[in-house]
Design brief:
about 25% strand, 2 domains, eight-stranded parallel barrel, 14 helices, alpha/beta, TIM Barrel
Length: about 475
């Protein structure tokens, strides 16, 4: 997770880290549909707006974006994962069910704690230095409990290795533990946010000093290269940059030197590190926040030049854990849907959402129970809407809405409509007699589902303000 300054985290603090669619008729969702409003005598806000028209099964145009990975993955801090696993031989059944509901997406153990974690038993006796006293030691049963979890869920596993404060022997122990736990694929991340290892003074944070970028990358390669040898040919992801623009000139050499199979960078469109009040519902729902991945097209280009995929390996609505009642609000679910769609259309193949025991976590494990937050509904929906093998395309000419189509290998088509405006928008859906609709709104938690029919194949819908909905044909 990105923070303002990189400061050592005391062991106690590290442990704390673990800590509508609206349609006419019945089932229209949280707001009234146009027909209901006319009956009540109150004209809807969009009454003078001509409806957009769109065909449910549009003819494919353009190459589109192939979906090659689960679009929404997870990235957890080590203490968070340890807490979620519980104290039994196997984790709570509710956690297993939650990961299965999410589609068993890639599960990464990384973040700030990655460079502050030691394997179990490595920190014995009195700490030889103050820095050693700040490290977090994995519980003894961590790998066996994680294996029990992954045996049931089959999530692919990414393990972050300590490149900043770890001993060389620790990496071998972590690799062995990871190999014993993984059940459906294993990769490694060599250090977390190395562009923040040696922060310059505050006056130069926005622009690196001359030669600083090359010096920092050379230092990182010196510590990461031995870790790469330790993983013995296993796939690697990185370099997990916090501010990719600072290493823009050096990213291709780093990819080439470490032979990384996946280029991973971090992206938080808002920051709660210094001024949490700047993180607002309006900010989360803004087009700039949703489309932040577009600013990293060059990362995708560098990865493509190296013939490897690019992912946003750590992200959430705002850095430093987000802000309560904003990052855990229904608006966060709408943001997540928009953000992932923008990332895929930019060329990134996946977004991994960060957990740190903070307000922006998609879900929280409390004993034997899992408490979900609104963003979780968006992640479940995204992995269902965008299955591996599908093709995502942008549709033009849909008035007042951002429209996308998802074509699946089986021949089916789904429409995704995004109303970025503060007013509801009418739309006429052509070419379908029966549809199923799933809606994420900024005012109500969870995905709302509905069905609608028209014998003439013209279905009139109202897309709520700041909502994203998916429409698919139904029997």
């Amino acid at each position: 997770m990105r923070r303002g300054r990189r400061t050592p985290v005391p062991r106690a603090l590290a442990l704390v880290l673990g800590l509508s669619l609206l349609i006419a008729g019945a089932g229209a969702g949280p707001a009234l549909a146009a027909r209901s409003q006319r009956r009540s005598g109150h004209a809807p806000a969009h009454s003078k707006t001509a409806p957009a028209e769109v065909t449910l099964t549009p003819s494919p145009t353009g190459a589109g974006v192939p979906v090659t990975m689960a679009p929404a993955g997870l990235s957890l801090e080590y203490p968070t994962m340890a807490q979620d696993l519980g104290t039994g031989a196997c984790p709570p059944p509710a956690l297993v069910s939650e990961l299965q509901a999410l589609g068993s997406p890639p599960l990464a153990l990384a973040g700030d704690s990655q460079d502050l974690t030691a394997p179990s038993g490595a920190l014995s006796g009195a700490p030889p230095s103050w820095e050693t006293a700040t490290l977090y030691s994995l519980p003894t049963a961590f790998w066996s409990e994680l294996h029990c979890l992954l045996s049931a869920t089959r999530d692919p596993l990414t393990i972050g290795l300590n490149a900043k404060t770890g001993e060389p022997s620790w990496a071998a122990q972590m690799v062995a533990g990871a190999q014993s736990a993984a059940t459906n694929g294993l990769s490694f991340s060599l250090g977390n946010e190395p562009d923040l290892y040696y922060l310059p003074n505050y006056a130069s944070l926005s622009r690196p000093l001359g030669g600083e970028e090359a010096a920092a990358t050379n230092t990182y390669l010196q510590v990461a290269s031995p870790l790469q040898q330790t993983v013995a040919g296993a796939p690697t992801i990185g370099p997990e940059l916090a501010r990719p623009a600072h290493w823009r000139g050096q990213l291709p050499p780093v990819i080439a030197a470490l032979h990384e199979q996946t280029v991973g960078v971090h992206l938080y469109p808002l920051t709660a590190c210094v001024t949490p009040k700047a993180v607002t519902i309006g900010g989360v729902l803004s087009a700039q926040t949703a489309n932040a991945p577009r600013g990293l097209r060059w990362v995708v280009a560098d990865a493509s030049a190296a013939h490897v995929p690019a992912i946003i390996s750590e992200a959430n609505s705002a850095s430093c854990g987000g802000v309560a009642r904003v990052s855990d609000s229904p608006a966060s679910g709408v943001w997540a849907a928009r953000f992932v769609l923008a990332a895929l259309k930019t060329g990134f193949q996946e977004v991994r959402f960060h957990f740190s025991g903070a307000p922006y976590d998609p879900f929280v494990v409390r004993g034997e129970a899992v408490l979900t937050r609104p963003i979780e509904s968006a992640l479940v929906a995204l992995n269902q809407w965008l299955p591996v093998g599908a093709t995502l395309r942008t549709l033009s000419g849909v008035r007042g809405l951002v429209a996308s189509s998802v074509g699946e290998l089986a021949g089916g088509t789904m429409l995704i409509l995004d109303n970025e405006h503060a007013q509801a928008r009418p739309v006429v859906l052509r070419g379908a007699r029966n549809v199923s609709i799933e809606t994420l709104t900024a005012t109500r938690a969870g995905a709302q589902t509905a069905r609608h029919s028209s014998p003439r194949g013209r279905i009139k819908l109202t897309v709520a303000a700041n909502s994203v909905l998916a429409i698919s044909p139904s029997p």
